[in-house]
Amino acid sequence: MNTVLFLLIGVPLLEIYLFIKIGSQIGAFNTVLLILATAILGVTYARYEGFNTLKSGIGQILKNELPIYQIISGAALAFASVLLIFPGFATDVVGILFIIPFTRKLILNRFIRTKKKFNNKKYIDGEYEDISENDDKKI
Description:
single chain, mainly alpha, 6 helices, flat
């Protein structure tokens, strides 16, 4: 809950700060053009990478293998496209990192390792018997 609240407040504040800083350096009109250019180029490149991921996934299916990485990569590309459409420099940087295949693989591998670390809980397998039915018969 705290992470979501931090993101809802922190990301827009960071974007406003960056708009002011970068806009004061390059001008308001150039800032708007830069935001539009990153959105258009980023979504175009995300579409290209999405088709490459789709081709790779179809190749995996034809080999009778489950395209796990391609599915996760496709979801990451969709997330990157959304980040690139949102106006802002910080979201554009994160979106571009998710679009570039090398950095996307690094980020996804790091995420998977972190999830595995937290999911390595030990469980005890056992059986149980509901004794509430037996208590009614004794009375």
